[in-house]
Amino acid sequence: MQPITATAGPLATASANAICLSQTPAGAGAMTLNGALVVSGVAVMDNPRRVLITPAGSESAKTFTITGIGANGNTVSEVLAGVNNPATAQSVLDYKTVTSITISAAAAGAITVGTSDVGGSKWVVFDAFAPSMISIQCNATTPINYTVQTTLNDPYDPITPVAPASVVWVSSSDTAVVGATATQQSNFMFAPVYARILINSGAGSVAATFLQSSNGPK
Question: pTM score > 0.85 for this model?
Answer without folding.
Answer: yes
